[in-house]
């Protein structure tokens, strides 16, 4: 009985750590995308331009 509780506890702990790691990776990716977007020149893209 105690062994089953320990397994469940450690499984939940591992899932929480994995979720926190994924959340951190998402935050880092969003921050990197935002920084890249801000550093890119804001030139409009011209489509269907006839010369």
Automatic annotation (TrEMBL):
It comes from the Bacteria. Residues 31-51 are annotated as: Disordered. This is Cytochrome C oxidase subunit I. The lineage of its organism: Bacteria, Pseudomonadati, Pseudomonadota, Betaproteobacteria, Nitrosomonadales.
